[in-house]
Write a structure and sequence with these properties.
The chain is mainly alpha-helical. α2 (41-53) packs across α5 and α3 packs across α4 (69-81). It has helices at residues 7-26, 41-53, 58-65, 69-81, 103-124, 129-147, and strands at residues 56-57, 85-90, 93-101. Helix content is 64%, strand content 11%. It is built from 6 helices and 3 strands. Strands 1-3-2 form a 3-stranded antiparallel sheet.
């Protein structure tokens, strides 16, 4: 932990750290069973939500991904057509459709995303809830700041 960093030292540390973080994330090996699919980073986020939070509706996924429901629906349709995702009616409300990872790909998706999950759990686990919130808020602020450049 770097206590008492000046703003310049903090910026320098993050500028050096971010490319390494991104590089490591990009090197997460896609399991053989998923390599034939055209999976983009947006699919990684969608699959992560479905894996960690269980079956979700299209609107729930759209909200979490911060995209329009039509965009989420297109992504889900694409992955469903490829057999990565499965859709089924919600037993509690037959008008709703739940999206889950297809059983045939659950192990491959879990092994692929498990490395990132384990890494974040190790990094965020020792922190207090307030400290975790600060990390997330800071990373979102950084994302917003560089998105306007």
């Amino acid at each position: 932990m770097h206590d008492g960093l000046s703003l310049d030292d903090g910026v320098r540390a993050m500028v050096l750290l971010m490319p390494r973080l991104v590089g490591r994330a990009k090197r997460l090996p896609v399991p053989e069973a998923l390599r034939s699919f055209d999976l983009a980073p947006r699919h990684l986020s969608l699959l992560t939500y479905v894996l960690l939070d269980g079956p979700l509706t299209v609107n729930e996924l759209a909200s979490r991904l911060e995209v329009a429901p039509t965009t989420a629906s297109l992504m889900i349709s694409d992955l469903s057509r490829q057999g990565v995702l499965a859709r089924r009616p919600d037993d509690n409300d037959r008008r709703r459709t739940l999206v889950s990872i297809a059983e045939s790909h659950r192990t491959a998706v879990a092994s692929w995303l498990g490395g990132a999950d384990r890494g974040w759990r190790a990094a965020l686990g020792p922190l207090t809830a307030e400290q975790r919130a600060l990390v997330i808020t800071t990373l979102r602020a950084y994302e917003a700041a560089v998105a306007t450049d």
